[in-house]
Amino acid sequence: MADQVVIVGAGLTGLVTAYQLHRRGVPSVVLEADDRPGGRVATVRFADGAVAEGGMEEFWESSPAYPLLQELGLPLMDQPALSSVMLRGCFHPFRGGSAGAYFDELGGRFNAGFDPSQSISASDDEMSLPEGLLLVATLQGDPVGCGALKLHSDTGIGEVKRMWVSQSVRGLGLGRRLLETLAGEASSRGMHTLRLETNETLSEARHLYETSGFVEVEAFNDEPYAHHWFQRDLTNAPTRRAETVRYT
Ligand SMILES: Cc1cc2nc3c(=O)[nH]c(=O)nc-3n(C[C@H](O)[C@H](O)[C@H](O)COP(=O)(O)OP(=O)(O)OC[C@H]3O[C@@H](n4cnc5c(N)ncnc54)[C@H](O)[C@@H]3O)c2cc1C
Prior knowledge:
Helices cover 22% and strands 27% of the residues. The protein is built from five helices and twelve strands.
């Protein structure tokens, strides 16, 4: 008699495992403590009679679920997005919007104003995988923060660009969270070092970098708006990626 695999839990993980084993002819039994299968995937019924499906509904093409969903013939809808971020359990595709506020604020704060065409580039292409990425945090649909990464796979250096948190949500730790997510992204994509430069007027940004493992170094580029250059060793950084931030 063939060995039987015992799978504990009939959530997505357990059910997909059972499905894959079944396809390979390996018998399995799934044990579930709850009175229904599905785990966190559930149909939610509201008092007013509305019904909503909760659970996995949005994911990147890199998700291991993608080929399986195609194989099962489930209807999938493509949504254009330069990049995305998950915050508080919500997945936010980026379609533009925050760059204007970011540039306006820099122009207002920098003593010499800010003209993005004079600054080291961070174009849409450079901020799209595999060249780089852009994380955008939104609150009730409005962009309230962003952070970009240019990935230099030839040197193993990740370049942080466009770090910005809106005045309306400062002090909540969003900047640190974006920065840590960028560090995790860079590390998991093979970068050993993270670099950035900043303007002397952005004192809160400098404080964030100094307390996030960055050390100030000699100028490594000729960015006209920079007065301070920072570097962080990613050798021991966590390799968390934005799309795998846990749901609560
Ligand atoms: C509202 C919502 C929206 C989401 N949206 C997305 C999305 O857009 N994209 C995305 O990628 N993900 C999304 N997720 C997350 C995704 O649904 C979960 O990551 C996934 O369902 C987790 O599956 P799992 O099998 O690993 O865990 P669970 O679903 O937690 O399943 C674990 C199962 O194991 C059972 N169990 C635990 N211990 C025992 C035991 N000792 N004996 C027997 N049974 C046991 C539990 O009862 C449960 O049924 C969302 C989640 C929620 C709640």
